Amino acid sequence: MNFWEYISTAHQQLLADAYQHASAVFQCMVVATVIGVVIGVVTYRSEWAGNLATTTTSTILTIPSLAMIGLLIPIVGLGVPPTVISLTLYGLLPIVRNSIVGLRGVDPSLIDAASGIGMSRMARLAKVELPLAWPPILTGIRVSTQMLMGIAAIAAYASGPGLGNEIFRGIASLGSKNALNQVLAGTVGIIILALLFDAAYVLIGRLTIPRGIRV
Amino acid sequence: MSDSVPEAPTAATTATVTADGGAGESGSTTGATIELENLTKRYPGSAAPAVDNVSLEIKAGETVIFVGPSGGGKTTLLKMINRLIEPTSGRIRIGGEDVTDMDPVKLRRKVGYAIQSSGLFPHMTVAQNIALVPKMTGWSKSKIKARVEEMLDLVGLDPAEFRGRYPRQLSGGQQQRVGVARALAADPPVLLMDEPFGAVDPITRDHLQDELIRLQRELHKTIVFVTHDFDEAIKIGDRIVVLRERSHIAQFDTPEAILTNPVDDFVSGFVGAGAALKRLNLTRVRDVEVTDYPTVQVDDPLQTIFDKLRDAGTNELLLLDKRRRPYKWLRRGDLMRAKGSLARAGTLVHDTVTRDATLRDALEAVLIDNAGRVAVTGRRGEYEGVVDMETLMNSVHELLDADRLEAVEHQHELEELRAQQTHQEQEGEGGPKA
Asked: Are B369 and B357 in contact (CB under 8 A)?
C-alpha cells in the first residue's frame, strides 16, 4: 500500500485526529494568550518582575516535552489534562516575552500624553499601550502556535488527542507495512495544520492591527 | 473650575483688546487663573529639591512662558500644574479652586496638554485622537463629531481631508496642529504646552507660533508654554517667567521689560545679544501705519497703467493678479523695456507679510525685496497696503524710547521695593530665605 492509498483508506481517522490536534492547540493558545498577556501587563513596568517572568517561562521551555508530560501523568492522570497543561505552559514564553517587550517599547512620550489628557491607568492600558504593543504580541502568539503544533504530537504519549497518535502508532509498529505511512501522514498533517494556522494569523493581523501602525 | 471667569483678562495684555467680542460669541470657556503656592518637588535620594518653593500667579486669559536653560526644571514645574508630577508640598489652585488633592484624572481632563512631537496616538485617526477627551468626559456622538470638525477648522486643517488620516500621514507641522486641536477639544480653560514646537523645522515653527497667537486672540485661554528658545518666548508670551536652576524665578515680567531691563546677569545672559532687534519681534505690522500704495491689476488695459504711473507721483506701481494678490513691482520704464508686455515687465514680489507678522519679518521682507517696502496682505493673500522702510525705522525709534522711559520708572519702583525689604529685614521680619 503506498502513501496515497493509505490516506484514502484512513482519511476519516486522519481527519478526526487533525481536527482534535487543531482544536487542542487552538484552545491551549487561547488560554496561553490570556495568561501570557496578563503576566506581561502585570510585570512589564518592573525591571525584576519582567525578568523573573521571562526567565521562569523560558525555564519551562527547557524541560523536554516528553519528560513534562511524563511528570504530569501521576499528578493529573492520562488523556486531555496533561496535554492541555503542558501545551499551555510551553506556549507562554513567546507571548510573555513579546508582551513585555511590546509594552516596554511604547514611546514614553505617548504614555505621558495619555496620562496628560486625563486617561486613567486602565484606559491608558486598554486604549494606548495594548493596541500599540499588539503587533509584537501577535508575533509571539504566532511563534507559540508553531511550536505547540509540534509539541502537541508528543501528547499522544499520554493518550492525549491529535495527530501524534498516528505517529506513535507508526513508531510502535515499525516494520509493519503501514508504519512509515502512519508516521508520514501524522507529520505531513501537522505541517499542513501549522501552515493553515499561520495563514489565519496573517489574516488576523490584517484585521486587528490598525492601519496607522501597520508596517 | 470649568466655570469661565467672567472678566477674563483683567491684565493689561494684548488679549484685552478683543476679549469682549471674541470670547462671548463662540460660547467657549475662557481662561482661568492659576496660582502656585510654595510648590516644592523633592525626589527621594537627592539632597537638593528639583523644584524649590515656587510661588507664581498667572492671570486668566494670559499666555505665560516658562523659559530657561534645559535641566532647569521648567518642564517639571509645568507637569506639576496638571499633577503629572505630584508636588511634595505646596498648593495648586486653578480658577480659585484648590486642585492639589482632587482626582488627577478629573483634573487633567479640564487642563489641555500638548507636548513636543505632538504625542498623537499613531493607531488612531486624526478624528479619533481629537475625540479622545470629549469621549472620556461623556459627550454625545453627534456633539463629538461636530466638535472634531470645529477643532480641525480652528487649527487650519480641512476636516474632509484630514479627519480620516493617521498621524504618520501628516507632516510634522500638521501633527502639531492636531496635537493642539486635541488639547483644546474638551474646551479646557487652561492649556499647558511643553515645548510643542521644538521638533519642527524653523519655517513651520514660525507658522505654528503665528497660528497660536491667532488662536489665543480668539480663545483667551490661560496658556502656560515651556520653551528654551527665548525668541519664541518673546514672540508668544504676554509675560515670561525666566527660570534658573531648581525652578527659581529669576524674573517674571512682560517681554518688553525683560528685554529692556533684565534684573541680573543670568537673565541678560539668557536674553542674549541684539535686544533691540528682538524688540522688533514684539510689535506687529498691525501696530504700525500701513499706508496705501498705487496699484493696478493684471487685466487693466495698458493705457490705464501708463496713466497711473504718470499720475502716481511714485516711481513704482504694485501690480496685482486677478485675485488682488501682490504680483509684481512695476517701475517707470519697465513697460517700455518689455515692449508693452506685462508678462515680462517688472520684478516679482518675493515676500509679503500679514498684519499679524512681526516688524522683524517685515524688516526682513523689505531688505530682501529691493522695493524698499513690503506689501501687507489679508487672510487670503489679497493686497491691503504697504509698509515702508521709513515707517519701520520711525516705529523702532519710538518703541525703544518708550521702553527706556519705562525701564527707568521700573528701576525706581524696584529700588523702592528693595529699600522697603531691607527696612523690614532690619526690623527682624525678614523672609524665610534671609
From this structure: no
CA A179 remoteness from chain centre: 29
Sheet holding B316-320: strands in order across?
B295-297, B316-320, B326-331, B347-348
* CA-based nearest residue to B39, from B1, B2, B4, B74: B74
Residues of B whose CB is below 8 A from A128 = 121
Cell triple for residue B302?
A: 495698458
Confidence of residue A177 (pLDDT cuts 50, 70, 90): confident
Interface contact flag, B115 A118, Cβ < 8 Å: no
Angle between helices A130-154 and A179-208 (to 10 degrees): 170
Report the interhelical angle of A179-208 vs A164-172 (nearest 10°).
160
Please tell me which residue of chain B has the smallest CA distance to A122. B105
Rounded-to-10 torsion of CA B331, B333, B338, B343: 30
Grid cell of B408 as nine digits: 527707568
Q: Which residues contact B205 (CB under 8 A, 6 or more apart)?
A: B197, B232
The 10s digit of each residue's pLDDT in B286-313 is: 888 888 888 888 888 888 888 887 787 7
Q: In angstroms, how far is CA A142 from the centroid of its own chain?
A: 7
Phi and psi at residue B211, in whole multiples of 5°? Answer: -60, -45
Give the one of A110, A116, A211 whose C-beta lies nearest to B108's C-beta.
Answer: A116
- DSSP state at residue A127: I
Asked if B121's CB is within 8 angstroms of A128's CB, the reply is yes
Question: Nearest by CB to A117, which of B113, B123, B124?
Answer: B113
How far apart CA A201 and CA B310 sit, in angstroms, is 79
Measured distance CA(B13)–CA(B9) in Å, rounded: 7
Tell me the three-class secondary structure of A3-30, residue by residue. Answer: HHHHHHHHHHHHHHHHHHHHHHHHHHHH
A108: contact with B, CB 8 A cutoff: no
Query: Nearest chain A Cα to B170, which residue?
Result: A212
Distances (CA, A) of B377 to B31, B203, B214, B294: 31, 19, 16, 15
Decide if A112 and B84 are in contact by the 8 Å CB cutoff: yes
Closest residue in B to A130 (Cα–Cα) = B123
C-alpha A57/C-alpha B337 separation (Å) is 86
Q: Comparing C-alpha atoms, which of B55, B58, B74 is closest to residue B66?
A: B74
Handedness of CA A102, A107, A110, A111 (dihedral sign): positive
**Are B197 and B232 contacting, i.e. CB atoms less than 8 angstroms apart?**
yes
Express each pLDDT in B358-372 by its tens digit: 888 888 888 877 677
Q: Using CA atoms, how far apart are residues B228 and B303, in angstroms rounded to an integer?
A: 56
Query: What pLDDT does residue B25 have?
Result: 41
CB-based contacts of B258, cutoff 8 Å, min separation 6: B234, B240, B242, B251, B267, B271
Q: Fill in the DSSP letter of residue B247.
A: G
Task: State how far the Cα of A150 lies from the Cα of B18, in Å rounded to an integer.
Answer: 73
